[in-house]
Specification:
single chain; 3 domains; 13 helices; globular; alpha/beta; 317 residues
Length: 317
């Protein structure tokens, strides 16, 4: 590790929030030769934080809910780091910052760190750099890490691969219970939150969720369903308790360790695939991807043989 990276890591571990912000910026920029030494230095200092994912369709009130949860954890004496994955600007590619604007009450709280990250077109409600950013926040010593996904409806299940506990937020009158069944998030939800419970139909939405779980014969048929009104704080303590109870249940057996092993496998695989993609793009000549694509399109070569040639070129590189 270079001296600059070592100093940055040391400052972050010492609690310097400016160093944390700089590390997150470098992670989001994504240059492997810069990110690799930072993660190598930070990784041994991770693993203590509780990772909570908050997902759900747009309009369910996720940002307001996260804001209320931050206040609840802070009142309990815990520090909180937040990654709010925002849609990307079509012009600059940066985050639109809509989620962070709703959390301004905590800006001056030294026990809270909020970072908006652009999805940059990545499907699944997250960003390519989310796992590495979570490692940086974990190393910074926060007790709880909250990840709020973009809010893209039927594709937001990736957060379950990163979180210890996944909270799926739905709202009454939006058909969210049916959308949950279509999206497959009945299986990934560890806690359901029916937000905006002051609106008509909240009890019906909770009942539909339970019925859908029973109908599908899911193992998680007893997944807790908590009704909240984030704007007034109603039900927030119950939701925080449900998250804490789930963490306790995970720790009682091997499930927490199993989830973290699965998370590690996913990170290793994605980083390896990223390396393969980069090496593939660097192959030149007859074995290059473009040249092989022409051969396959002209029916001179079948796709499997072309893939073998590309892999042989990578092995010889």
């Amino acid at each position: 590790m270079g001296a600059a990276s070592a100093d940055l890591v040391a400052d972050l571990l010492a609690g310097d929030r400016r160093a944390l912000a700089r590390v997150l910026t470098r992670i989001e920029d994504g240059a492997g030769d810069v990110v690799r030494p930072l993660i190598a230095g930070l990784h041994p200092h991770t693993g203590e934080a509780t990772l909570v994912g908050v997902t759900g369709a747009p309009g369910a009130g996720k940002s307001t809910l996260v804001d209320a949860l931050i206040g609840s954890w802070r009142a309990a004496g815990q520090t909180v780091g937040v990654l709010a994955i925002d849609p990307s600007s079509p012009f600059s590619g940066g985050a639109l910052l809509g989620d962070r604007v709703r959390m301004q009450d905590h800006v001056l709280d030294e026990g809270v760190f909020i970072r908006s990250m652009a999805s940059r077109g990545q499907l699944g409600g997250l960003s390519w750099s989310t796992p590495q950013a979570l490692l940086a926040l974990d190393a910074a010593g926060f007790d709880v890490l909250l990840v709020e996904t973009v809010g893209v409806g039927q594709g937001e299940v990736e957060v379950a691969g990163l979180a210890d506990t996944t909270v799926v937020v739905v709202a009454p009158g939006m058909g969210d219970a049916v959308q949950a069944a279509k999206a497959g998030i009945l299986e990934v939800a560890d806690v359901f939150c029916v937000n905006k419970a002051d609106r008509p139909g909240a009890s019906r939405t909770a009942r539909e969720l339970r019925e859908l779980q029973m109908l599908g014969n899911h193992d998680g048929a007893d997944t807790p369903i908590v009704l909240t009104t984030a704007s007034s704080g109603e039900g927030i303590e119950e939701l925080r308790t449900a998250v804490a109870d789930h963490r306790t249940a995970l720790e009682a057996g091997d499930e927490l360790a199993a989830r973290r092993r699965a998370r590690a496998r996913l990170q290793i695989r994605e980083l390896a695939l990223g390396t393969v993609r980069a090496r593939t793009a660097a192959v030149r000549g007859a074995a290059s991807l473009d040249a092989l694509a022409v051969a396959v399109a002209d029916r001179e070569l079948d796709p499997y043989s072309a893939a073998d040639r590309l892999l042989d070129a990578l092995d010889g590189a």
